Amino acid sequence: MPLSCLSFREELKGPGQGTVLCPSPLKEQETHAVERTMMKNNKRDEVISIAQAQALLCGAAKPVDSEVLAPEDSLGRILAQDLIARMNQPPFRRSAMDGYALRSADIAGAGPEDPVCLQVAGKLYAGDAPLPPGSLHSGQALRIMTGAPVPEDADCVIRQEDTDLGMEKVRIYRALEEMDNVCPVGEDFSIGECLCQAGTKIDAYALSCACAAGVTAWQVRKRIRVGLLMTGNELCAPGTPLQPGKIYNSSEAFLKGRLRELGCTVEESVFTEDDQSVITDTIRKMAGRVDLIITTGGVSVGERDLIPAALEDLQACTLFHGIAVKPGMPTLGAVYENVPVLGLSGNPFSAAAIFELLGRPLIHRMLGCTGQPFGRASALLTSDVLLKGGVPRVMMGILDAGRVTVCGQQRNAQMKYAVGNNCIVIFPPEKRVFTAGDRVEVLL
């Protein structure tokens, strides 16, 4: 059965509401507007904010299933359960340096002019088995190397630079306190300690912790399987001759690359001309094989903008159709057979900008990630920016040392100004002229 829009109400009011990311958490009055929009299923009577669109999409999405992988195969994946230490690390007291293990009481008062002489009882290297209790007596020292187990009868390690490096007898030229230069059991982590929380992106440090804890398999989120549906009679595949009136399908190249960067798998990418029955059939078949559907083109109000009609034919739940932002005002969000559908503009930059604002939080939610998908920073503009229209304006920028550069006007089809960007600037609608030196908020 199609998923009812009203079923998302409680989720929007619950804990998940706090994960709305940009530009600000959903306010109570906005929540009521979202609910009214949901009840107007398949109608474009109300244009909503970016934050409302995020809330609706993220509220409609559930984390994907998990799978068991070896840590070495998990780099970049998302942990599906807490990693709890089942052992101490290190599991024994070990020497922090090359020197001599001994009893601090035996070298009390030792100094450069008044050294203490101890008998050398043996030698231990890293990897040697710990000596049994009673192996080291008062008045004795044990030559020891970094990482070797410190005998129970010793309570400190004197570094070799503070000795004469004697082989049978050693002179000690300074005093120590108990546990000096000794790494205690569990110095890194202890049994029962949480090393990585569920929702953490697995990096090289997490792999190191898993290895140190003896973990050979753990639960991670499966990669999100994405289906791309590119519509438009004007599109032409790269590598084929470009006919008059045609353009190459650059949005497909962007989405495939960006989805891979975000840890998703593009399960299938389908191009269709503007034919409602073909679009409808494609979405129906795709929904059974993927976790997320992204479409480009066909979401505006022209005669050949057929995505809304196709979703209506499928009795899908339309969450919103139209958001108060430029570029990308015609953006559509829906759910069909429990699969979120994000309908983007056919213009490349419009599709890219809205994908960053809505696609990233949606993927973040579906992967069960902790924290926020965007970082935030405040920066000073390096040049003037002149805006038109009465809605927020999204532009790409380059942030460097607290200053942000926004190049060009970044019109709907202009991708060249987004190359090399590392942040997003959302200019508020209350002001149309921003001058160099103005402070703006950026999303990373």
Describe the 3D structure.
The protein has 444 residues and is an alpha+beta fold. Helices cover 20% and strands 26% of the residues. Strand 18 and strand 19 form a beta hairpin. The protein is elongated and about 95 Å long. It starts with 8 loop residues before the first helix and ends with a strand.
Main attributes of the structure:
single chain; 444 residues; Molybdenum Cofactor Biosythetic Enzyme, Chain A; Molybdopterin biosynthesis moea protein, domain 2; five-stranded mixed beta sheet; 8 helices; elongated
Briefly, what is this?
The chain has 444 residues and is of the alpha+beta class.
- The CATH architecture of the largest domain can be named as 3-Layer(aba) Sandwich
Number of helices: 8
The helix-and-strand class reads: alpha+beta
Question: What is the CATH topology assignment of the largest domain?
Answer: Molybdenum Cofactor Biosythetic Enzyme, Chain A
CATH hierarchy class name of the largest domain: Alpha Beta
* Mean pLDDT value: 89
The CATH homologous superfamily of the largest domain is named: MoaB/Mog-like domain
Report the sheet with the most strands, covering strand number, pairing sense and barrel closure.
6 strands, mixed
Rg, alpha carbons: 31 Å
Topology record:
Elements: H1 9-13, H2 28-39, H3 50-60, E1 66-69, E2 83-84, E3 94-95, E4 99-102, E5 116-124, E6 140-144, E7 156-159, E8 169-172, E9 182-183, E10 194-196, H4 204-212, E11 218-221, E12 225-231, E13 235-236, E14 247-248, H5 250-261, E15 265-272, H6 276-287, E16 292-296, H7 307-313, E17 317-321, E18 332-336, E19 339-344, H8 348-366, E20 376-381, E21 385-386, E22 393-400, E23 403-405, E24 423-427, E25 433-434, E26 439-443
Parallel strand pairs: 5-6, 12-15, 12-16, 13-14, 16-19, 20-23
Antiparallel strand pairs: 1-11, 2-10, 3-9, 4-6, 4-7, 5-8, 17-18, 18-19, 20-26, 21-25, 22-23, 22-24, 24-26
Helix pairs in contact: 3-8, 5-8, 6-7
